[in-house]
Amino acid sequence: MSVSTTSAAGPSPVVIIGAGPSGLLLARYLQLHHIPVKIYERDRCPTYRPQGGSLDLHDDTGLKALRETELLDIAQEYMRPEGEAQKVVDKDGKVLFDENVYGENGALVTHFEKTNGEIRGRPEIDRTDLRNILIASLEPDTIQWSHALKSCEALSSTLYQVNFHSQPSITTPYLVGADGTFSHVRPLLHPTKPDYSSVSMYDLNISSTTLSNQPKIQSYIGLGALELLGDGKAILAQMNSGGKAKVYVGLKVPERWQDEHPLPDEGKRREWLATMFDGWTDMAKEVIMASDEEGIMQRRIYQYDPELRWDTELTGVTVMGDAAHVMSPFAGEGVNQALADALELGQALVRVFTPPSRRVSLAPFPLSLFPISPPPPSTPRIVAPKPEALHSALRAFEKGMMRRASEEMRGSKENMDMFFGEEPAQALATFMENVMSPTFMVKMTLDASVKWMKRLWNN
Ligand SMILES: Cc1cc2nc3c(=O)[nH]c(=O)nc-3n(C[C@H](O)[C@H](O)[C@H](O)COP(=O)(O)OP(=O)(O)OC[C@H]3O[C@@H](n4cnc5c(N)ncnc54)[C@H](O)[C@@H]3O)c2cc1C
């Protein structure tokens, strides 16, 4: 199959590799603006593999991207504001920080509320729910499942051949790599690979039945997340929707440690993991032993140097999300940055694919810079962009993306060093208390204003 560069019906589709949060949100944004798009995804179907735990969405990135694609209302139905409650415990079981609220009988109560239909703070949403919402928002057949990208090559500076495992190759002038940490699109732009972060993890699940039968485990985790830290190890347990929980066991170990210490046969896995916490509070072993023996997964955490930048002579290709700037998950920023990338890339593409006179506003004037009235129905709304315009739009997008993401990459690394460093529980508890203090709030507001002004200035 070949996607031609132009056709009588208009420009050829933007080709996105990867149906993760960034690829899906970009496709949604482009379809809202009548730009044809196809996603090629490795998985066989939406339910092919578990999508992981809970994500917290931030106002100026993740929530903004959902708002701008008219998906915030539906996403709010799945958000759990109470999931923000954090609890920090040291290896001896001492609770150093706890945002849960307890009733007179010691039962957990939530003080997080929806206000005026808007969610406050940084609400949690299950990754599966977010992905399903995004998939359902797309036109039928936008996603081509079972298309695992093998390699990409530049046929010229404006045309790319995309080769799949077990599927015919395609060519496209517009290629976006949203294919995660080990992107196969990225080598077109630069050869740098992400570094191992020094942390490897195991993912475990606690069923809703176990949690309702074992109130002690629920009380350990609280309504949001438990961070049990010490000795270069971490147990991070977080509530997910439907009363179930996800448990991440993190270890500061060399990159090949998991290969050299493979998980034992099923039936012995939880016990094997639990022995790593000998000498810790019983809470550690109890949380691991309450998890399911089946479905334990292992993963290594990778990250890019925040100073990473690139330039290219190629015109219609770019990357976003983890493919561009993977960071460790310890600041909860990865998905937020990925969604912000998709929104900003979508805006950049709409500008080059849509002549100003034909732009349609999605937001009422004056919120949008676009004119409010739609063009006459007979006028094609989009045109193939001029190569120079596309080239400068994509390079400007990449510069802005990396400038924004690099601050969060630094923060994620600092947090990871704190989680696995000296006196981690005390350090995290102090950090959390500072974050909650009014002085810090004022500083954050000032920092956010400075960031906003810098971005405005740089653009
Ligand atoms: C353990 C863990 C916990 C995390 N917790 C948080 C958190 O709390 N908050 C937060 O903000 N972020 C968190 N993150 C990070 C977050 O999940 C990512 O930053 C985010 O998912 C990036 O989105 P993406 O669309 O760029 O890539 P991905 O989500 O990685 O999606 C990439 C897509 O591309 C597909 N793909 C990959 N290779 C190919 C190929 N060769 N061909 C075709 N398709 C391909 C994949 O199947 C996938 O669908 C966490 C990450 C980890 C590992």
Automatic annotation (TrEMBL):
SUPFAM superfamilies, per database record: FAD/NAD(P)-binding domain
UniProt cross-references to InterPro entries, sorted A to Z: FAD-bd (IPR002938), FAD/NAD-bd_sf (IPR036188)
Cited Pfam families: FAD_binding_3
Gene3D superfamilies: FAD/NAD(P)-binding domain
Record has Oxidoreductase as a keyword: yes
Domain FAD-binding, first and last residues per copy: 13-353
Keyword set, alphabetical order: FAD, Flavoprotein, Monooxygenase, Oxidoreductase
Protein name, entry field: FAD-binding domain-containing protein
Taxonomic source organism: Kwoniella newhampshirensis
